[in-house]
Amino acid sequence: MKTLYDVQQLLKKFNIYVYVGKRLWDIEVMALELDHLHKAHLISHDDFIHAKLILTHEHRIEEKHESRGTYLGK
Q1: DSSP assignment, residue 39?
Q2: In this structure, are residues 30 and 55 in contact, taking their beta carbons and an 8 Å threshold?
Q3: With 60 as the cut, is the pLDDT of residue 74 above it?
Q4: Residue (of 36, 38, 41, 33) closest to 12 by Cα position
Q5: For residues 58 and 27, is the Cβ–Cβ distance under 8 A?
Q6: pLDDT tens for residues 38-59?
Q7: Is 46 exposed, middle or buried (CB count within 10 Å of its CB: 0-12, 13-18, 19+)?
Q8: Please, what are the domains in the chain?
């Protein structure tokens, strides 16, 4: 697992599709869904950690873009 797309595919295995309309919010909701899957012991600890690291990285990128006024999301 290396990209946000990979995290989306992991969630898709559990019929979890996230689209809020803003990339930053999507990432935050995906993180919450991962927490729930991990708490329910439905995903491995390694998958959980990798996915959370990816989401944290992507979240930071989005925050930087928004703070600089270069956010191009929908």
Answers
A1: H
A2: yes
A3: no
A4: 33
A5: yes
A6: 999 999 999 999 999 999 999 9
A7: exposed
A8: 2-68 (1.10.287.760)
d(CA 23, CA 34) in angstroms, rounded, equals 16
Q: What one-character DSSP code corresponds to residue 70?
A: -
pLDDT of 73 > 60? The answer is no
Global pTM value: 0.88
Identify the sign of the CA torsion 43, 44, 47, 51: positive
What pLDDT is attached to residue 44?
A: 97
What is each CA distance from 36 to 32, 33, 41, in whole angstroms? Answer: 6, 5, 9
